[in-house]
Amino acid sequence: MTNGARIETFGCRLNSWESEVIREHTKQLGCDNMVVINTCAVTAEAEKQARQMIRKMRREDEDARIIVTGCAAQIDPQAWQAMPEVDAVIGNHEKLDAESWRKLATTNTPELPSLVGDIMTVRSVAPHMLAGFDHHSRAFLQIQQGCDHRCTFCIIPYGRGGSRSVSVADVVSQIRHLVAAGVAEVVLTGVDISSWGNDLALSDQAPPRLGQLVATILSAVPDLPRLRLSSLDPADIDADLRAVIADNPRFMPHLHLSIQHGDGLILKRMKRRHSPDDVMALVDDLRYRRPDIVFGADLIAGFPTEDDEAHHNSMRLLDQLNISWLHVFPFSPRQGTPAARMPQIKTEIIRSRAAEYRQLGHTLSQRQMDKMIGQDDEVVMETGGIAHTRQFGRVKMLTPDLAAGQLYPVRILRREGELLLAELRS
Ligand code: SF4
Predict the structure, then answer these.
(1) Residue of 74, 75, 154, 164 with the most ligand 1 atoms within 8 Å of its CB, for mutation
(2) In this model, does residue 136 exceed pLDDT 60?
(3) Which among 60, 105, 257, 389 is least surrounded, fewest beta carbons within 10 Å?
(4) Per-residue pLDDT averaged across 123-130, rounded?
C-alpha cells in the first residue's frame, strides 16, 4: 500500500472526513504523484487560499498531477480548470467514488478528464467504512450531506446538493469500526445534521430525527466513550435529542450552534429559522436539563443592511447567552446568493465589527476557562501535547509522553491566555 495522494483540505469537518475517504482511495490505487486540493466555498478568502496552495504545489513539483475538488470546484469547475497549474477537477459526489480516482490514475494522456456531475440530482449518500482517522484522535463521521434550506448568505447548497442521510445501520457499523480501531471520541458531522432523517421516512411514518439516531448509537455501541455533534441549527433540536443531552454522560456537554446573528430583523433577512428569543429559550432549556453544558456558536459580522443597533443587539445576545466558544466570520458576499445583491456594508466596518465579536469571544472563553480551573476532567489526547475536555476546552498537558487518541483523567491547574494547563490525575 502506498501513501496515496498528498491532500490539502480547506473548510469544514465534513471536508476533513471526505479527505480521509480520498486518502484511502488514492492509497489503494497508488496515486503517489497526485496532489488533491479539497476546496471550501464559504468565503472568498477560503478560495484565495486554495488558489495560493495550488500555485505553491506546482512550484514545488512540476510533475505532480494537481486535482481540485470540494465545494468551490463543484460550484464553478471551469474557473479552476482554467488555472494552468490544474490538471483536473472532480465534483463533490465524484470525489468519494473510487472509480473517479481509478480513471485519473489510469489515464496516461497529459489531459486528464474532469469529473463534475450535477450535484442537485444526487439522491443518495454512500457510506464509506474508514479504517481510522489519519492524524486525528477524534474521528469525524459523516451522517448527512447537502442542505434543503436557502439562507440568503450561503452558497453551500449549490456545492453540496439537497439534504440526504446515511442510514442508522451504516452509521452504527462505522462507529463500531472506529471504536474497534481505538477511537475514543466520534464527532457526527454533515452540512445540516439537524435535518438528518428527513429523507428516511417509511411510507406511513414520520421521518426519524437526529435525537433517535444519537440515542441508537449510544445504546448500540456501549463501548464508545464520547459522542459529540458538529454545528447544529438552533431551530431544529428535537425532543429526543434534548432527552439524550439531559441523561447520557457519554454525550459530551457541548453544543455548537449556528446562530449566525443575534438581531431579529437581520435573522429574517438571512432567512434563518430562529429568532433571538428562540435561541435564548433553547439555551435556557438545555442548561436546565444539563447544567454542565457549554455552547459554541458561529457568527457572521457585517451582514448587508446591519446597522450599529443590530450589531449591538447581537453582541448583547451572545453575552446574555454566555456562549463559550465563538467562531466569527466576516461577511463575504458569495456570487449567486441573495445577500450578495443586497446593499453591502463597508469592508472596514465589517472588519471592526468582526474584531469586536472576537474581543467578546476572548472574554467569554476566558470566563468559561476560569470556571474550569481546579476541576477534575477527562481529555482526549491529540498531538503536540494538546487535548480537549468534555466541554471542548482546549488544554495543554504538563504531563509528558501521553499517547494521542487516549482518554486521560486530568486536573485543570490554571489558564495561560486561551489555553488551560492540566496534569494527569491519579
Ligand atoms: S442551513 Fe443555511 S447556512 Fe447551513 S448549509 Fe444550509 S443554507 Fe447554508
Answers:
(1) 154
(2) no
(3) 60
(4) 72
